[in-house]
Amino acid sequence: WCNGKLLGKGNWEGRLPAGRHTIEYRKEGHKSSSKEIAVNNATFYEHTLAAPVPLYGAIEIYTNPDNAEVYIDGVFAGHTPIVKRDVLSGKRNITLKLPNYAAKSTIMEVVEGEMTEAMISLDKWMAVTINSYPQNSSVQIDGIRIGTTPLTDTIMAGEHHIHISSPHYNN
C-alpha cells in the first residue's frame, strides 16, 4: 500500500512521484507495518518493510449436544466443548458437525487479546428440496412416499435413501 492505495501483493517495483509517501504492508488478522519515505526525481530507492505481526484472540464454543467436530476456516480444531487459543483475529468461519445432526456454519469475530464465546444448538431436522425433470415425479425417502417434485420438506438429519420415479422413465 502507498498513501492508502493498494499497489500490489508481495514485492512491488515502480515509480512514485517526488514527495513524501507512506508505504504499508497489510495482512488480515495482522498488525500492519508502515514507513514514511521521501522520494526525489533523481534517486532510486529500495525499501524493505517488516512482515505484519499476527494478532491472536481465543474462542470458546459449546454445543447442544456436546462432542461436535469443530472446524475453523475448514481446519479441524477438536470437539466441543472447546477452548482454542491463538486463533488469528478477524472473521473466522466456524463449522460444526455431529452425526445425525445438521451441520451448522457460522462466522465468529475473533478480537485480539479477547475470548469470544458461543453456545450453538445443533438441529436434528433439516430442510430438503428435491427437483427433477420431468416434474411431478414421485419421491420416496427411506421407502416412504412423501410427494411429487418439485418438493420441499423437513427430514431428520443423517443419511437417507431417496428414490425418484416417473411413469414412462427408468427409475
Polypeptide structure, described:
By secondary structure, the chain is mainly β. Helix content is 0%, strand content 53%. The chain has strands at 19-25, 30-31, 33-39, 53-54, 56-64, 69-72, 75-79, 82-88, 90-97, 104-110, 115-121, 125-130, 138-141, 144-148, 151-156, 162-165. The strands form 6 sheets. Strands 7-6-9-10 form a 4-stranded antiparallel β-sheet, with no helix packed on it. A hairpin with a 6-residue loop joins strand 9 (90-97) and strand 10. The N and C termini lie far apart (59 Å). The model has no long low-confidence stretch (mean pLDDT 90).
Distance between the termini: 59 Å
Largest beta-sheet details: 4 strands, antiparallel
Overall pLDDT level: 90
Residue stretches low in confidence (pLDDT < 50, at least 5 long) are none
Number of helices: 0
Structural class: mainly beta
Q: Give me the side-by-side strand order of the main sheet.
A: 7-6-9-10
Basic shape: elongated
Bin the helical content.
under 10%
Strand segment tally: 16
In short, what is this structure?
With 171 residues, the protein is mostly beta strands.
